UniProtKB/TrEMBL annotation:
GO terms for molecular function: DNA binding; protein dimerization activity; zinc ion binding. It comes from the Eukaryota. This is Transposable element Hobo transposase. Residues 24-88 form the BED-type domain. InterPro entries: HATC_C_dom (IPR008906), Hermes_transposase_DNA-db (IPR018473), RNaseH-like_sf (IPR012337), Znf_BED (IPR003656), ZnF_BED_domain_contain (IPR052035). The lineage of its organism: Eukaryota, Metazoa, Chordata, Craniata, Vertebrata. Keywords: DNA-binding, Metal-binding, Nucleus, Transcription, Transcription regulation, Zinc, Zinc-finger. It holds the Pfam family Dimer_Tnp_hAT.
Amino acid sequence: MDPEELKKKIARGDCKVVDNTSSKLKSSVWEKFGVISDEESNIVKGFAACKTCLKVFVFDSRRCGTSSLRKHADTCAWNKLTRSIEQYLSKGTELKVPRRDDKDTITRLSVNFVCNDIRPFDAVHGEGFFALAQGLIDVGAKAGRVDVKQLLPDPTTVSRGVNKYAEKIRQELIPELKMQLEGGNGAVTLDMWTDDYRKNSYLCVTLHYINNKWELIERVLCTSEWDSSLRKTVDNIKPAIISALRKFGIDEFYSKLVYVTDRGLNIVAALRTVTRLSCAAHIFNTVLYTTFKPSQEDMYGEEVTAMIDSAKSLVTYFKQTSLQARLKKTLKNSVETRWNSLHTMLESISSQFEDIRTLLEERGEVDRLTNLDEEALSDFVAYLERFKEATKALEASKTPTLHLTIVWYERIRRHLRASSNDSNIISSLKEKCLSILQDKFDIHRLHRLAMFLHPKLKSMKLIADSSEVASVHSEMRRLVKDLKDKRGSPEEHCHHPPPEKRVRVSADTLSDVEDSNDEAPQYQDEVAAYIDHKTPKDDHFEILSWWQDHAHLFPNIAQIARSILAIPASSAASERDFSCAGYVIQERRSQLKPSTVDDVLFLHSNLKHHHHK
C-alpha cells in the first residue's frame, strides 16, 4: 500500500488519523502528526499522516527519525492558511466606523462586482463574505496597498482548500462528538434528496445534541452521494448510515441514537432495530394532502380539487405572462413535498383577489376565476393557517421541539372540531382530516417524556388518561434509578427547593396548556420534587436555560432532559440542508463533484459552531 492510496482511504472515511499513543515516541512533532487506523481500529504500520492536510508519509521509527515530518510541519501551507483564517475570524480589536465617501466608493465597487461578474446582489452579504472582506482590510492595514490579484487565491486553490478544511474540522470534531454521545445524549435526523441537474441522489445525516453549556447543537455530518448502482433498499440504507457515523468514529453509538425521519417504507424498515420517531411536520403535511384527495365518500372532494387545480393554473398563467409584475406580491405555487406550500399559494391569491380580478377583467379572462370564490379562499386559508403554525413551531432548530408534539397534536384536534361558523365544505374537510390525523399520528413514549420534562407542562393536563400520566412518572423514576445504579450512588432523599417568586405577565405561548398548581410541596423523591416545583409564568421562558439553572436541584432528571430534549420533533434539519444544496448545485455549478458538495454543506453547518469555541 502506498501513501497516495492511504490518503484516498482517509478521505473516504475508510481509514482515519489518530493520535500516536506509543510511549516510545516522545517527539513534539506528534502534536501535528498521527498514525493511521483502519476500519477495525488496527494501526497501519509504516506510515504517519499530517493531522492538518492529511498528507501521508512513509515512517518507521526503527529505521528513520522525524526530520521529514518536522520539515513538513514547519512548511505545511494549509496549516498556515487555517491559522490565518481563524485569526481573521476571531479578531476582537475595536473596528472604526467607515467614512461616508468610503462607503460610497465600496457601494460603487459592489455594483461593478455584481454586474461585471454576473453575481447575485446578496453576494456582498453574509457572515462568510464579511469575514473575507474584513480579512482583506486587515491585510491592507498591516501591509499597505497590495496587489489583490496576488493576494486572493485561485479558484482551484479554494476548491482544494474546501476539502482540506472540511477534513480538518471533521477530525477535530471526533473527540467532542464521542464525549457527547457517551452520555447517551444524541439524536439523528436523515432524509434522501435528488438534485435537479444531474439527478444525483444524496443521503443527509444530521446529529443533534445538547452540550455541557445547555446549548442545542445541530451538525450536518454528511450530504453524501448515493451510489447509483445501489437500490435504496433496507440492506443498503443501514450500512450507508453507519458509514456516515464511522467518519466521525461514532458508529459504535448507532443502536443507541434516536432517529427522526419521514415515513418512507425503506427508511422505516432500515431503522426497525433502533428507536425511530416519525417527523411530526411531515405527518401534518401528509394528513393535509390526503384530506384534499377526493374519495367516494367525500361529498365535496371534486369541488375542492377543482379549486386547488384552478389556483395552480392561475399562478402558472400569471408567471408566464407580464401580469405577475403588476401585483404587489408574488404568486406562489404549491408543491406537495414542500410543507405549507398549499397555504402559501392560496394566501398569495386570497390576499390579492381583487387586484387579480381587475387584471383579468382588463384582458377579458375573468373565467380563469370560475372555481375560485373569494370567501371560500379566505375560509381555506384560515383552515390551513393552524397547520402552518404547527409546522413552524415543530421545525425550529435553536430550541427543543419534541415536547411540543403532543401540544400541537391536541391543538390541531381542537382546530378540527366542527364550528357553527364553518361552511359545508370546511365542515366536511375537518371531519375527514380529523379521522386521517388520528389514524396517522403516533404518540411515542418519548413524546410524553419530553412533555413531562418541560417545567411548564409537567402536569400533563393534555393527557386525559391518568394511567398514562402515572406511567410517565414511573418510567422517569426508572430512568433516574438506572442512572444512580450506573454511577453506583445510593438512593437519595430529595427535599423540595423553596418555590420561585412568581412573575406577573399578560400572556404566554403555552398559557393554554401550562401548569398552575399552587399547592404546598412535601418531602419527596427527585421526580416528585420536580413535579411539585413551582415554575413562575414568564413570557420569555427558555427551557434549556431553566434546566441549566436547576440542574443542581434535579441532577438525574437534568441528565435525562439533556438526552431527550435533544431529539427534534421533525426532520426539518435535512430539509434545510437540501435547501442549501439547491443553492450549491445550480446550472452554473452542476459539475461540482458530489464530494465537494458534501464538504461545502458540512462546512456551512459546522463553521458557526467551530468558530464560537
